[in-house]
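Bit of a strange request maybe. I'm writing a small parser for structure token strings and I need a real example to test against, not something I typed by hand. Could someone generate the tokens for this chain?
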Amino acid sequence: MKPKMKVGFIGLGTMGASMASNLQKAGHALTVHDIRREAAESHLGRGATWAETPRQVAEDAEVVFTALPGPREVEAIALGPDGLLAGLRPGGVYFDLSTNSPALVRKIHAAFAAQGKHVLDAPVSGGPRGAATGKLTLWVGGDEQVLERYRPVLEAFSDNVRFVGPIGAGSITKLVHNCVGRVLTAALAEGFTLGVKAGMDPLALFESIREGVIGRRRTFDGLIDQFLTRTFEPAAFTLRLAHKDVALATAVARELGVPMRLTNLTLEEMTEALNRGWGELDTRAFTMLQQERAGVRIAVDPERLKAALAGKE
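Reply from user aminoacidic:
Good idea to test on real output. This should exercise your parser:
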């Protein structure tokens, strides 16, 4: 069978190696490069071509992917003297799959665009298991028409390719996702240390709260009814009552000597919102304080939100 497309892939770590393998399985001709040649042995054994430099990868490919640790590595690979910019042909396409700096992505995009070459940022989410199974989400920023031309290639290693906006939007989406995830992890650590120090078995606590309202719904579904539409009345649960609950939790923490930094910060936010007279609004009304400080107003049209959610319940 004739290979579908000549693809270059740079960065064969835990994630990259699996994505590159899935491109091979889909029938694409692969040229690879990594700081360690041994990382490519399995791909070379299945017919991939080794390139000594990123420039050589680009010279031999219709589309190039990088999956690298961070901005420093991406900049060197993309803009270095023997990098992708030097090798990619006019009209060629480069997707960066790394978790990257939006400012650097825009810088690289501008440098490539000046030579008639395309850059899209397409960070991935799904972890090593998702990379191995092809169950990955890609958030793509850049030229949507270019994305659509190469969507079949992306779908060789991703089951959810989503266009999210102009160049840099993919990186911003990934950073927000990861930032929120780490903060949630820290909040869970606070809650569980409080519960365990208060005498709970951690497994019993996990099994119990997993069956509560937060555990029963997808993490971000709690944003739908109030936060995203800026609809805080009538309240699903009032800020006044939510403030009471968090205050009780912090009181127990003080009795037991459990530090609760994030929870105390949240209580301060809720207290300020109460002092604004928002006690009978929905509990999520305190999020308006952060919007004020950031100088933004989040208010999605309910019909747009309904359309976006159609068929996804």
